[in-house]
Design a protein that fits this description.
Blueprint (H helix, E strand, L loop, with lengths): L14 E5 L4 H12 L3 E8 L6 H15 L2 E6 L8 H12 L10 H13 L23 H10 L16 H17 L4 H21 L1 H4 L8 H4 L4 H11 L2 E2 L5 E2 L3 H12 L4 E4 L3 E6 L2 E4 L1
Parallel strand pairs: 1-2, 2-3
Antiparallel strand pairs: 4-5, 6-7, 7-8
Protein backbone atom coordinates (compact mmCIF):
# COMPACT_ATOMS: atom_id res chain seq x y z
CA UNK A 1 0.00 0.00 0.00
CA UNK A 2 1.43 3.36 -1.07
CA UNK A 3 0.23 5.74 1.63
CA UNK A 4 1.74 8.75 -0.09
CA UNK A 5 -0.89 8.51 -2.82
CA UNK A 6 -3.56 9.43 -0.25
CA UNK A 7 -1.58 12.17 1.49
CA UNK A 8 -2.08 15.87 0.81
CA UNK A 9 1.49 17.12 1.15
CA UNK A 10 2.81 20.22 -0.62
CA UNK A 11 5.25 19.91 -3.51
CA UNK A 12 8.63 18.22 -2.98
CA UNK A 13 11.25 20.62 -1.67
CA UNK A 14 8.71 22.69 0.29
CA UNK A 15 9.83 23.72 3.77
CA UNK A 16 7.35 22.57 6.40
CA UNK A 17 7.02 22.55 10.17
CA UNK A 18 5.77 19.33 11.75
CA UNK A 19 4.22 18.91 15.20
CA UNK A 20 5.70 15.64 16.47
CA UNK A 21 4.84 14.24 19.90
CA UNK A 22 6.71 10.97 19.49
CA UNK A 23 3.48 9.00 19.20
CA UNK A 24 2.74 6.79 16.19
CA UNK A 25 0.54 9.30 14.33
CA UNK A 26 3.07 12.12 14.41
CA UNK A 27 5.99 9.79 13.69
CA UNK A 28 4.04 8.56 10.68
CA UNK A 29 3.68 12.19 9.62
CA UNK A 30 7.45 12.65 9.86
CA UNK A 31 8.27 9.49 7.92
CA UNK A 32 5.76 10.25 5.17
CA UNK A 33 6.84 13.90 4.91
CA UNK A 34 10.44 12.77 4.35
CA UNK A 35 9.27 10.22 1.78
CA UNK A 36 7.47 13.12 0.06
CA UNK A 37 10.87 14.91 -0.11
CA UNK A 38 9.83 17.85 2.04
CA UNK A 39 12.36 19.96 3.95
CA UNK A 40 11.31 19.32 7.52
CA UNK A 41 11.63 21.11 10.85
CA UNK A 42 10.19 19.14 13.76
CA UNK A 43 8.52 20.87 16.71
CA UNK A 44 7.94 18.97 19.94
CA UNK A 45 6.05 20.43 22.90
CA UNK A 46 6.96 19.19 26.39
CA UNK A 47 4.12 20.05 28.77
CA UNK A 48 5.99 18.62 31.78
CA UNK A 49 2.76 17.08 33.07
CA UNK A 50 3.60 13.38 32.78
CA UNK A 51 6.71 11.89 34.43
CA UNK A 52 7.74 10.46 31.04
CA UNK A 53 7.38 13.70 29.06
CA UNK A 54 11.12 14.38 29.20
CA UNK A 55 11.78 10.91 27.78
CA UNK A 56 9.39 11.71 24.92
CA UNK A 57 11.33 14.89 24.11
CA UNK A 58 14.66 13.02 24.14
CA UNK A 59 13.22 10.33 21.88
CA UNK A 60 12.00 12.90 19.36
CA UNK A 61 15.48 14.48 19.36
CA UNK A 62 17.00 11.05 18.75
CA UNK A 63 14.66 10.32 15.84
CA UNK A 64 15.44 13.71 14.31
CA UNK A 65 19.19 13.02 14.56
CA UNK A 66 18.61 9.70 12.83
CA UNK A 67 16.80 11.38 9.95
CA UNK A 68 19.07 14.46 9.99
CA UNK A 69 16.22 16.93 10.39
CA UNK A 70 16.06 20.06 12.53
CA UNK A 71 14.30 19.68 15.87
CA UNK A 72 12.93 22.36 18.19
CA UNK A 73 11.69 21.37 21.65
CA UNK A 74 9.29 23.84 23.26
CA UNK A 75 9.05 23.75 27.05
CA UNK A 76 5.56 24.58 28.27
CA UNK A 77 4.62 24.47 31.93
CA UNK A 78 1.06 23.23 32.20
CA UNK A 79 -0.73 22.10 35.34
CA UNK A 80 -3.13 19.17 35.30
CA UNK A 81 -6.80 19.65 36.12
CA UNK A 82 -10.00 20.75 34.41
CA UNK A 83 -10.08 21.36 30.65
CA UNK A 84 -6.58 19.94 30.33
CA UNK A 85 -7.00 18.92 26.68
CA UNK A 86 -8.19 22.38 25.64
CA UNK A 87 -5.48 24.13 27.64
CA UNK A 88 -2.78 21.83 26.26
CA UNK A 89 -4.01 22.45 22.70
CA UNK A 90 -3.96 26.20 23.28
CA UNK A 91 -0.45 26.01 24.74
CA UNK A 92 0.80 24.07 21.72
CA UNK A 93 -0.69 26.60 19.33
CA UNK A 94 1.08 29.41 21.14
CA UNK A 95 4.54 27.94 20.57
CA UNK A 96 4.31 25.84 17.39
CA UNK A 97 4.51 27.87 14.14
CA UNK A 98 1.21 28.70 12.51
CA UNK A 99 0.49 26.27 9.70
CA UNK A 100 2.51 23.43 11.20
CA UNK A 101 1.41 20.03 9.90
CA UNK A 102 -0.12 17.51 12.31
CA UNK A 103 -0.64 13.76 12.16
CA UNK A 104 -4.44 13.71 12.33
CA UNK A 105 -5.93 10.75 10.42
CA UNK A 106 -9.36 9.76 9.14
CA UNK A 107 -9.99 8.18 12.55
CA UNK A 108 -9.38 11.55 14.23
CA UNK A 109 -11.81 13.15 11.79
CA UNK A 110 -14.51 10.59 12.67
CA UNK A 111 -13.93 11.08 16.40
CA UNK A 112 -14.18 14.85 16.01
CA UNK A 113 -17.46 14.52 14.11
CA UNK A 114 -18.94 12.52 16.99
CA UNK A 115 -17.57 14.87 19.65
CA UNK A 116 -18.99 17.87 17.81
CA UNK A 117 -22.30 16.10 17.30
CA UNK A 118 -22.61 15.55 21.05
CA UNK A 119 -22.19 19.26 21.74
CA UNK A 120 -24.78 20.21 19.14
CA UNK A 121 -22.49 21.54 16.39
CA UNK A 122 -23.81 22.69 13.03
CA UNK A 123 -22.53 21.95 9.53
CA UNK A 124 -19.05 23.28 10.23
CA UNK A 125 -18.62 21.05 13.27
CA UNK A 126 -19.89 18.00 11.40
CA UNK A 127 -17.47 18.49 8.50
CA UNK A 128 -14.12 19.15 10.24
CA UNK A 129 -10.62 18.80 8.76
CA UNK A 130 -11.97 18.11 5.27
CA UNK A 131 -10.08 20.96 3.61
CA UNK A 132 -7.45 21.54 6.31
CA UNK A 133 -4.04 21.67 4.63
CA UNK A 134 -2.32 21.27 8.01
CA UNK A 135 -3.67 17.71 8.25
CA UNK A 136 -2.18 15.91 5.23
CA UNK A 137 -2.92 12.41 6.64
CA UNK A 138 -6.66 12.97 6.98
CA UNK A 139 -7.44 10.41 4.25
CA UNK A 140 -5.37 7.67 5.93
CA UNK A 141 -6.46 5.19 8.56
CA UNK A 142 -4.63 5.26 11.87
CA UNK A 143 -3.79 1.55 11.69
CA UNK A 144 -2.05 1.96 8.33
CA UNK A 145 -0.01 4.92 9.60
CA UNK A 146 1.07 2.93 12.66
CA UNK A 147 2.10 0.00 10.48
CA UNK A 148 4.15 2.36 8.33
CA UNK A 149 5.98 3.61 11.42
CA UNK A 150 6.85 0.05 12.43
CA UNK A 151 8.01 -0.64 8.88
CA UNK A 152 10.35 2.34 9.17
CA UNK A 153 12.00 0.73 12.18
CA UNK A 154 10.60 3.14 14.77
CA UNK A 155 9.10 2.29 18.14
CA UNK A 156 6.63 5.05 18.93
CA UNK A 157 6.23 6.48 22.39
CA UNK A 158 3.00 5.72 24.27
CA UNK A 159 1.12 8.52 26.00
CA UNK A 160 -0.71 6.87 28.88
CA UNK A 161 -3.26 9.69 29.00
CA UNK A 162 -4.66 8.29 25.75
CA UNK A 163 -5.91 5.30 27.77
CA UNK A 164 -7.73 7.35 30.41
CA UNK A 165 -11.51 7.42 30.37
CA UNK A 166 -11.36 10.87 31.99
CA UNK A 167 -11.07 12.37 28.52
CA UNK A 168 -14.13 12.35 26.30
CA UNK A 169 -12.18 11.72 23.08
CA UNK A 170 -10.72 8.55 24.56
CA UNK A 171 -14.18 7.25 25.38
CA UNK A 172 -15.35 8.04 21.85
CA UNK A 173 -12.29 6.24 20.47
CA UNK A 174 -12.37 3.16 22.67
CA UNK A 175 -16.04 2.78 23.56
CA UNK A 176 -18.45 4.68 21.30
CA UNK A 177 -16.87 3.79 17.96
CA UNK A 178 -16.56 0.15 18.99
CA UNK A 179 -20.26 0.11 19.91
CA UNK A 180 -21.25 1.81 16.65
CA UNK A 181 -19.21 -0.72 14.67
CA UNK A 182 -21.00 -3.53 16.49
CA UNK A 183 -24.46 -2.06 15.92
CA UNK A 184 -23.79 -1.22 12.26
CA UNK A 185 -21.91 -4.48 11.66
CA UNK A 186 -19.31 -2.50 9.73
CA UNK A 187 -16.44 -0.07 10.20
CA UNK A 188 -18.20 3.28 10.60
CA UNK A 189 -15.09 5.51 10.41
CA UNK A 190 -15.13 5.70 6.57
CA UNK A 191 -18.88 6.30 6.72
CA UNK A 192 -18.45 9.24 9.10
CA UNK A 193 -15.60 10.60 7.00
CA UNK A 194 -17.68 10.34 3.83
CA UNK A 195 -20.57 12.10 5.58
CA UNK A 196 -18.18 14.89 6.62
CA UNK A 197 -17.09 15.36 3.01
CA UNK A 198 -20.71 15.49 1.79
CA UNK A 199 -21.61 18.03 4.46
CA UNK A 200 -18.52 20.07 3.61
CA UNK A 201 -19.67 20.30 -0.01
CA UNK A 202 -23.14 21.38 1.17
CA UNK A 203 -21.54 23.93 3.48
CA UNK A 204 -19.36 25.31 0.68
CA UNK A 205 -22.43 25.72 -1.53
CA UNK A 206 -24.36 27.50 1.24
CA UNK A 207 -21.41 29.80 1.89
CA UNK A 208 -21.34 30.68 -1.80
CA UNK A 209 -25.05 31.52 -1.66
CA UNK A 210 -24.48 33.60 1.45
CA UNK A 211 -21.42 35.44 0.15
CA UNK A 212 -23.29 38.72 -0.49
CA UNK A 213 -25.03 38.52 2.89
CA UNK A 214 -21.75 37.96 4.73
CA UNK A 215 -20.25 41.02 3.06
CA UNK A 216 -22.83 43.19 4.83
CA UNK A 217 -21.81 44.42 8.26
CA UNK A 218 -24.01 44.13 11.31
CA UNK A 219 -25.34 47.68 11.13
CA UNK A 220 -25.65 47.78 7.35
CA UNK A 221 -28.99 45.95 7.11
CA UNK A 222 -32.30 47.35 8.25
CA UNK A 223 -34.03 45.02 10.71
CA UNK A 224 -37.22 45.33 8.66
CA UNK A 225 -35.34 43.68 5.79
CA UNK A 226 -33.81 41.08 8.12
CA UNK A 227 -37.27 40.05 9.24
CA UNK A 228 -38.16 39.10 5.66
CA UNK A 229 -35.22 36.67 5.39
CA UNK A 230 -35.70 32.93 5.69
CA UNK A 231 -34.84 31.77 9.25
CA UNK A 232 -31.81 29.73 8.09
CA UNK A 233 -30.43 32.68 6.13
CA UNK A 234 -30.85 35.09 9.05
CA UNK A 235 -29.39 32.64 11.56
CA UNK A 236 -26.34 31.98 9.38
CA UNK A 237 -25.74 35.73 8.99
CA UNK A 238 -26.07 36.39 12.72
CA UNK A 239 -23.74 33.51 13.59
CA UNK A 240 -21.09 34.99 11.29
CA UNK A 241 -21.56 38.57 12.47
CA UNK A 242 -21.55 37.70 16.18
CA UNK A 243 -18.67 35.19 16.09
CA UNK A 244 -15.41 35.76 17.91
CA UNK A 245 -11.88 34.75 16.94
CA UNK A 246 -8.94 33.97 19.17
CA UNK A 247 -5.42 35.27 18.61
CA UNK A 248 -4.67 31.92 16.96
CA UNK A 249 -7.49 32.26 14.44
CA UNK A 250 -9.92 29.88 16.13
CA UNK A 251 -13.49 30.69 15.15
CA UNK A 252 -16.16 30.62 17.88
CA UNK A 253 -19.73 31.20 16.69
CA UNK A 254 -22.35 32.29 19.23
CA UNK A 255 -24.29 29.61 21.07
CA UNK A 256 -27.82 28.64 20.06
CA UNK A 257 -29.17 30.57 23.05
CA UNK A 258 -27.25 33.69 22.04
CA UNK A 259 -28.59 33.45 18.49
CA UNK A 260 -32.12 33.09 19.90
CA UNK A 261 -31.61 36.26 21.96
CA UNK A 262 -30.24 38.08 18.91
CA UNK A 263 -33.26 37.00 16.87
CA UNK A 264 -35.51 38.52 19.53
CA UNK A 265 -33.69 41.82 19.06
CA UNK A 266 -34.15 41.65 15.28
CA UNK A 267 -37.84 40.84 15.63
CA UNK A 268 -38.36 43.76 18.00
CA UNK A 269 -39.35 41.63 20.99
CA UNK A 270 -36.58 43.31 23.01
CA UNK A 271 -34.31 46.27 22.32
CA UNK A 272 -31.07 44.62 23.42
CA UNK A 273 -29.47 41.41 24.71
CA UNK A 274 -26.24 40.34 26.39
CA UNK A 275 -23.65 38.16 24.61
CA UNK A 276 -20.46 36.44 25.72
CA UNK A 277 -17.34 38.52 26.19
CA UNK A 278 -19.22 41.37 27.84
CA UNK A 279 -20.86 42.32 24.53
CA UNK A 280 -24.32 43.83 24.09
CA UNK A 281 -26.38 43.63 20.91
CA UNK A 282 -28.85 46.49 20.59
CA UNK A 283 -31.34 47.80 18.01
CA UNK A 284 -31.57 51.55 17.35
CA UNK A 285 -33.63 53.03 14.54
CA UNK A 286 -33.98 49.52 13.05
CA UNK A 287 -30.18 49.05 12.93
CA UNK A 288 -28.13 46.61 14.99
CA UNK A 289 -25.11 47.71 17.02
CA UNK A 290 -22.66 45.58 18.97
CA UNK A 291 -21.16 47.23 22.04
Amino acid sequence: MNLLEDCDFPAPGTRVDLAVSGGPDSLGLLVLALEAHLVVTVHHVDHHVRPTSGDDANYVREVCRRFAVDCVVHDVRLEGGANFEARARAARRRVVPRGALTGHTMDDLAETVLLNMMRGAGLAGLSPMVDDATKPLRHLRRLHVHSHVVGAGLAARHDETNDSDRFRRNRVRHELLALMNDVAQRDVVPVLARQAHVLFEERAWLEELAREDLARDLGAVDCRELRTWAPARLTRWLRARLATRTAHGEFYPPSAREVARALAVVRGDVVACELTGGRRLARRAQRLTLE
